[in-house]
Amino acid sequence: MTTAHTPGTEPAAERLLKPHEVAELFRVDPKTVTRWSAAGRLNFVLTPGGHHRFRESEVQQLLKSQRAETTPISQRRARESGAVTVADIEKMVADADGS
Q1: Cα(69)–Cα(47) distance, rounded to whole angstroms?
Q2: Which of its termini does the chain have fewer beta carbons within 10 Å around, N or C?
Q3: DSSP 3-state assignment of 82?
Q4: Distance CA 70, CA 77 (A)
Q5: Domains of the chain, with CATH numbers?
Q6: What is the spatial distance between Cα 60 and Cα 73, in angstroms, rounded to a whole number?
Q7: What pTM did the predictor assign?
Q8: Measured between alpha carbons, how far is 27 from 16 in angstroms, rounded to an integer?
Q9: E strands, the chain, where?
Q10: For the segment 18-37, what is each residue's pLDDT rounded down to a tens digit?
Q11: Which helix (H) or strand (E) holds 38?
């Protein structure tokens, strides 16, 4: 099955992000984003002027996977530092309601 497009109604191209925009999402320096692309961790598109751009969908996918990997570590660090996490508060509330 083929999909026909009438002229001028082609699907919009995916949004491309600049290195500093990606860096803001990950809370890192833009140079880190450049290193990630050089290491193959993040694919990039070169503009005609030779600038790196990153597909928003790929950036979001990497951001989600990184958050999934770091959440348990963050919770462990919070406990080690004596901080109270949201999970701790929820457990305290549940315990108080059950008593």
Answers
A1: 32
A2: N
A3: coil
A4: 11
A5: 16-98 (1.10.1660.10)
A6: 20
A7: 0.57
A8: 18
A9: 16-17, 45-46, 52-55
A10: 999 999 998 899 999 999 99
A11: helix 30-38
- Whether residue 16 contacts residue 53, with contact meaning beta carbons closer than 8 Å, is answered with yes
What gap in Å lies between CA 34 and CA 17, rounded to an integer? Answer: 13
Tens of pLDDT along 34-93?
999 999 999 999 999 999 999 999 999 988 887 765 556 566 666 677 666 677 777 777
Tracing tokens 């929820």 back to the chain, one arrives at 90
The alpha carbon of 15 is separated from its chain's Cα centroid by a whole number of angstroms, namely 15
Q: Name the token pair of 12.
A: 């919009």
Q: Which amino acid, 43?
A: N
Name the nearest CA neighbour of 37 among 15, 22, 27.
22
Alpha-carbon Rg for the chain in angstroms:
21
The pLDDT of residue 18: 96
